[in-house]
Design a protein that fits this description.
Blueprint: E1 4-21, E2 51-55, H1 62-78, E3 82-86, H2 93-102, E4 109-113, H3 115-122, E5 136-152, H4 161-171, E6 173-178, H5 186-198, E7 201-206, E8 215-221, H6 229-249, E9 253-259, E10 263-264, E11 267-268, E12 272-278, E13 297-301, H7 313-328, E14 334-337, H8 342-352, E15 357-360, H9 366-369, E16 377-381, H10 385-391, E17 395-402, E18 406-409, E19 412-415, H11 416-428, E20 463-468, H12 475-485, E21 488-493, H13 499-515, E22 518-521, H14 536-542, H15 545-557, E23 561-565, H16 567-575, H17 577-580, E24 592-594, E25 602-610, E26 626-633, E27 637-639, H18 642-650, E28 654-658, E29 680-684, E30 690-693, H19 716-722
Parallel strand pairs: 2-3, 2-4, 6-7, 8-9, 15-18, 20-21, 20-22, 22-23, 23-30
Antiparallel strand pairs: 1-4, 1-5, 8-12, 10-11, 13-16, 13-17, 14-16, 15-17, 18-19, 24-27, 25-26, 25-28, 28-29, 29-30
Helix pairs in contact: 12-19, 13-15, 14-16
Length: about 725
C-alpha cells in the first residue's frame, strides 16, 4: 500500500473556540468567577442569572452538538442554566455580528466560534464582516485541526519542505487541490499563503464544480414508432449517442423522459434529443455572461471537430478543463456558452445588457461568425499577453470590448441600440415587451424626517407571525430573511378545506398575533388571485372580528409592526392598513393595486428609490438611496387620485418609487414595469409602522443577481428587528 508524506503547513487553525463578547481593546467582559462555582447568592458569579451560549450553525450539526454538551457540563459546574440559542447564516457571521451589536460584555453571553471562518471570511470581498477575532475574548480552545500539504512518498522531486520549496520556486507555478475555492476556504487560503511565501503562482482545483461532477438528464421527442424499423432506429440512434457522450465525458445520466407520441394525424415532431447538465459549484465562482469593461480581450475556446462536425471528445475534455482552471484562477470576467447560433449571437448578447460595444478582429467572415460550435466558449479576459499565450492551442482571438456602444466589423459600424432593435422587433408584435402606455408621474420631494414613534416594548428577538395562505409562495424566503436579521419567525399554514379547519385556523391566527411583535404578509398568489383580484382571500380572513381585533391590539397597544410584500401589499391595501394604519371599509376612491398595463404577469429586476425615511422599516436607508429589487406580479399597478397622492407625499407615506438607472422617476416600461401612477412602488401607514411594497426584498442572499448593478438589500428586515431593540 502506498503511503503519503505529509508536509505540515504553517497555518494551523483552531476549528472551534468558546468566546465571550469583548471590547476593541481586547478586554473581557467576563467577571471574576473565582471561588465556589455552585454558589448562587447575590454578588457571586453567576448568581441567579442564566447563561446563553450562542451557536452560529443549525441545530443538529456538529457545532450545535458540541454547544449542547458544553452547556450541560458548564451549567452543572456553575449551578445555573446554560441555554443554547442557534442564530444561523453566513457560516457563523450572522450570529457573530449580531452578538457584538446586541449583547453586553457581562459574562452571560458566550458563543462558539469557528476560527477558519473568522479568518477567511474577514477577507472575503463578497462579505460585509464588521468584526474580527480581535473583537472577541477567547475563553478556551475546543478543537484544533492542522492543515497538511500532502505529496506521494515515492515522488522523487522532493522529500522535505526545503526541497519542495526549491522545486516549485524554480517551476514558477504550483498546482494543489482544496476542499473549496477562494478565500472562504481555509484549505485554499493555506495554499495561497504557501504560494505567496514561495513567490509562485498557484492554480487551485476544487473538488466540486468541475465537469467530472456533472450529471445529465435526457428528454426525447419522437413520432409514434409503431412497427416501423426506421422509426425505431431514430430513438435507438439517439440513445447510442447519449451513451457515447456519457462514457466520453464521464457524466452519468440520472434522469429523463421518453416522449414517443409526438404525432397528430399526419403531423410528426422532428426527432429530437434534449440533454440538460446539472452540477454543484461554489456560487462565488459563478461567472456571468455580460461584458464587464472596455479594453478587455475576447477569445473563442473551441475543441476539435471531426468530419461530421461533431466535437472530438478528447479535445472537449481539454477545453472544459482549461475553462475551469481559468475561472478558478479568477482570470475570466465573462463566459458565454456557444450554441447553434454561433459567435455572432454570443458577442451581441454579451454586449447588450451593459450597452458596451465590440471591435472585431480582422478576417472573421460570416461562416466563422454564424457556424454552430457546440462544446465551446466565448471568454472575456483582461488584456494580458501571457494569458493569451496560455490559451493555445484551443483559443482564437475575436476582438476587443469597447466603451462606445458600437460594433465594428471590417469597417462596418452598427450601434448596440440598432442591433437590439433588430433582435427584439421580430417578436414585439407577437409578445410585446412594452405596453405603450405612460403613467402620470411626479418627482415627489424626498421626505427625510424619521418617525418619532419608538417602540416601548423592547424585545431582544422579536417574534414574527407569517401566515401561509393557499397559493402563497414566499413564506420560507421571508422567514429566512427575518431569521438572518435576528427575529424569531413563525409560519402558520392556513387550512381552508372544511369549516372546522377554517375555525381552527382563525383561533391559531389570533393566538399567533397576540404573541407576535410583527405580522408579515408574504408574496404569492393567495387563492389563485381569485375571485376578482389578488389579496382578497387574505383580506377576508383578516376582517374576521377576532383577527381584526388582534391586529388592532398589536398596532395600538403593543407598538407592533406590519409588513406586506407583493400579494401581502395587495392584502394590506384592501384592508386599508395602508394608507390608513387600521382596518377600514374600502371606498371607491381609495388607493388600490390593479392589473399591469401590459395585461400580463411580469417578472424582472426593478430599480427603486427610497422617497421617504419616515417608516421604521426603512431606518437602514437614506432618502434618495437606490436599490435593485426583483418583482413578480400581474396586479401591481398602484392607482390613486391626485388629491390622495399629494396627501400621501406630504405626509411622507410614499415610501418608494420606480426609477430608471439614473435615478429619474420612471413613466414607462421597463423601469415603471406595471404602469403605477407617480411610479409608486410602496406606501406606508400615517406613522410608517405598516409598510406595503411590491418588490420582493426577501429574495436576497449572497451571490444573487451578480450581473445587476446597485445595492439589492434595503435592510428592511434588519430595520424591523432593530425597532424593538
Amino acid at each position: 500500500m502506498k503511503r503519503t508524506l505529509a508536509i505540515l503547513i504553517a497555518l494551523a487553525m483552531s476549528v472551534m473556540m468558546l468566546t465571550a463578547c469583548g471590547s476593541k481593546d481586547g478586554t473581557s467582559g467576563t467577571p471574576d468567577n473565582s471561588g465556589d462555582a455552585n454558589q448562587t447568592s447575590t454578588g457571586s458569579y453567576p448568581g441567579n442569572k442564566n447563561i446563553t451560549l450562542y451557536c452560529g450553525y443549525s441545530a443538529g450539526g456538529s457545532s450545535d452538538t458540541l454547544c449542547r454538551l458544553l452547556a450541560a457540563k458548564v451549567g452543572e459546574k456553575l449551578g445555573t442554566t446554560v441555554t443554547v440559542e442557534n442564530v444561523t447564516g453566513a457560516s457563523g457571521w450572522v450570529m457573530w455580528n449580531q452578538m457584538m451589536e446586541s449583547t453586553k460584555p457581562d459574562g452571560y453571553s458566550f458563543f462558539l466560534i469557528n476560527s477558519p471562518n473568522v479568518t477567511t471570511g474577514k477577507y472575503d470581498p463578497d462579505n460585509t464582516m464588521k468584526y474580527d477575532q480581535n473583537d472577541f475574548e477567547m475563553i478556551c480552545n475546543e478543537v484544533t485541526d492542522s492543515n497538511c500539504l500532502a505529496i506521494r512518498v515515492d515522488d522523487d522531486r522532493y522529500s522535505d519542505w526545503d526541497s519542495f520549496a526549491a522545486y516549485w520556486k524554480q517551476a514558477g507555478s504550483l498546482i494543489t487541490s482544496a476542499s473549496g475555492l477562494g478565500i472562504t476556504s481555509d484549505d485554499a487560503t493555506a495554499d495561497m499563503l504557501v504560494a505567496n511565501d514561495l513567490g509562485v503562482d498557484v492554480d487551485i482545483i476544487a473538488s466540486g464544480g468541475s465537469r467530472e461532477k456533472c450529471w445529465l438528464s435526457f428528454q426525447e421527442y419522437f413520432e409514434k414508432i409503431g412497427a416501423d424499423p426506421v422509426k425505431w432506429g431514430k430513438p435507438f440512434q439517439s440513445l447510442l449517442g447519449g451513451l457515447k457522450a456519457q462514457l466520453e465525458l464521464g457524466c452519468a445520466a440520472i434522469g429523463g423522459k421518453d416522449s414517443m407520441s409526438g404525432s397528430f394525424e399526419d403531423i410528426h415532431v422532428p426527432p429530437t434529443l434534449i440533454s440538460f447538465a446539472v452540477s454543484t459549484a461554489k456560487a462565488q465562482k459563478v461567472v456571468t455572461d455580460e461584458f464587464k469593461a472596455a479594453g478587455d480581450k475576447v477569445y473563442y475556446l473551441a475543441p476539435e471537430y471531426d468530419e461530421n462536425g461533431l466535437p472530438v471528445y478528447e479535445s472537449v475534455r481539454a477545453v472544459f478543463d482549461k475553462m475551469e482552471s481559468l475561472i478558478d484562477a479568477g482570470k475570466v470576467k465573462a463566459v458565454y456558452t456557444l450554441g447553434m447560433k454561433g459567435l455572432g449571437e454570443a458577442l451581441c448578447k454579451m454586449a447588450f445588457g451593459s450597452k458596451l460595444g465590440f471591435t472585431f478582429a480582422q478576417g472573421l467572415d460570416a461562416a466563422t461568425l454564424f457556424a454552430p460550435y457546440e462544446g465551446s466558449f466565448v471568454v472575456e479576459i483582461p488584456e494580458d499577453g501571457v494569458l493569451a499565450d496560455s490559451l493555445a492551442p484551443y483559443a482564437t482571438a475575436l476582438g476587443t470590448v469597447n466603451g462606445n456602444g458600437i460594433f465594428i466589423l471590417d469597417g462596418d459600424v452598427l450601434t448596440a441600440d440598432e442591433l437590439i432593435a433588430a433582435w427584439s422587433s421580430k417578436l414585439e408584435s407577437v409578445f410585446p415587451t412594452d405596453s405603450g402606455k405612460s403613467a402620470t408621474v411626479e418627482d415627489v420631494p424626498l421626505y427625510k424626517e424619521r418617525s418619532i414613534f419608538v417602540s416601548q416594548n423592547k424585545v431582544a428577538r422579536p417574534r414574527v407571525f407569517i401566515p401561509a395562505f393557499p397559493g402563497t409562495n414566499c413564506e420560507v424566503d421571508t422567514a429566512r430573511a427575518f431569521e438572518q436579521a435576528g427575529a424569531d419567525p413563525h409560519i402558520l399554514v392556513v387550512g381552508n378545506l372544511t369549516p372546522a379547519a377554517i375555525n381552527e385556523t382563525i383561533e391559531k391566527m389570533v393566538e399567533e398575533i397576540k404573541q407576535a411583535q410583527i405580522v408579515m404578509l408574504p408574496g404569492g398568489f393567495s387563492g389563485g388571485d381569485e375571485p376578482e383580484g389578488s389579496g382578497k382571500f387574505i383580506a377576508t380572513t383578516f376582517r374576521n372580528p377576532a383577527v381584526a381585533e388582534a391586529v388592532t391590539q398589536l398596532l395600538n397597544c403593543r407598538d407592533g409592526l406590519m409588513l406586506g410584500i407583493c400579494n401581502g401589499f395587495q392584502a394590506l391595501i384592501k384592508l386599508g392598513l395602508v394608507p390608513y394604519g387600521k382596518i377600514v371599509n374600502i371606498q371607491e376612491n381609495d388607493p388600490t393595486l390593479t392589473f399591469n398595463t401590459i395585461g400580463r404577469h411580469i417578472s424582472q429586476m426593478a430599480y427603486t428609490r427610497v422617497t421617504s425615511t419616515k417608516s421604521p422599516w426603512l431606518a437602514g436607508t437614506q432618502a434618495g438611496d437606490m436599490f435593485a429589487v426583483p418583482i413578480s406580479h400581474g396586479e401591481g399597478r398602484f392607482v390613486a387620485d391626485e388629491a390622495t397622492l399629494r396627501r400621501l407625499a406630504e405626509n411622507g407615506q410614499i415610501a418608494t418609487q420606480y426609477v430608471d438607472p439614473d435615478g429619474n422617476v420612471a413613466t414607462d416600461m421597463p423601469f415603471n414595469p406595471n404602469g403605477s401612477v407617480w411610479a409608486v412602488e410602496g406606501i406606508t401607514s400615517p406613522d410608517g409602522r405598516v409598510l406595503g411594497k411590491m418588490g420582493h426584498c426577501e429574495r436576497k442572499g449572497e451571490n444573487l443577481y451578480k450581473n445587476v448593478p446597485f445595492n439589492k438589500d434595503m435592510q428592511i428586515f434588519e430595520s424591523g428587528v432593530k425597532y424593538f431593540k
